[in-house]
Amino acid sequence: MSSKNRSFAAGLMGSLDDAAPQPEAPTRMPIGVLASRENRMAELASGAVVGRAIEQVDPARCRLWSEHNRDYAALDETRCADLIESFKAQGRQEVPAIVRRVRGAADIDFEVICGARRHWTVTWLRAHNYTDFRFLVEVRDLTDEEAFRISDLENRAREDLSDIERARDYLKALGRHYGGRQKDMAERLKVSEAWLSRYLDLARLPGDVVAAFEDPHELKIKHVTQLKPLLKPDDRERRVLAEATAIAKTKGEGAPLKPQDVIRRLVAAANAPKKSGSAQRSGKASAEVISSPTGQPLLRVEPKGKKEVHVTLLLQAGGSRADAERALTELLGRFWLQPSG
pTM here? Predict the structure, then answer.
């Protein structure tokens, strides 16, 4: 074939190729997306990342874990105000609560490990015209000890969880999960024994002492270092418990006492003056210190025989004149000899 004919044939074949339908090129996923997916699957396979089941559920089909460290009964619109406003603004719950599945319960599907306030808030919103809200949860398979550590880790830095709630939670967990071994518990929680010990001391305060405070949630770790020494020896503890009971009986009468005011009164009761050795041997009564309702010393009273009482005004102890006048009036009622009929 001549060169001219070969050129014509090549041109004809090219025209036929252009006219024939061509197979579509396969759609390829961008290299970056594929790499990202492969990396994610590799992380899941290696355990570096764990897949989680996220669900939206009815809060009525959830119950609080029995060891949950939140005082659920104490939750209200004030303590959950930040979540209520946030959920309303976002139109949903953003951060899932941590739950585990419940088996064999007809009316309960999940147990809330972390997220009591979120559960309370969604429940409250559904009861107040926001019926479309659902409870966002992350479902995990956890032992009780794992559940405790996860709950503690999530709530440790939260300011809305009171020290007394956390302390009581630690004391329960000490026996349930760590056999009473404080060192083992501290190691598992990654905290110092001294740090943990202060919380346990707070949880072990007698109920009468805790009841003396207007709101037990106001009790802080810093207070336990002031209160614990008042409970030894036994005679000091008896005076402190008696004073705590007296304070609790007056709750609701007048302005509530601040925590430090309660502590001052308990300190004053614990440090009630004792009879000196010479006074005990001679049978003489020892000096008595009369304090204000908030614990400031006002008067020192020293009986001298049967017909004389020495009274010292403690002017620098912080009490008010009105408190001192009331104390003097009560003192006159006790010691002034009434004329015989």
Answer: 0.58
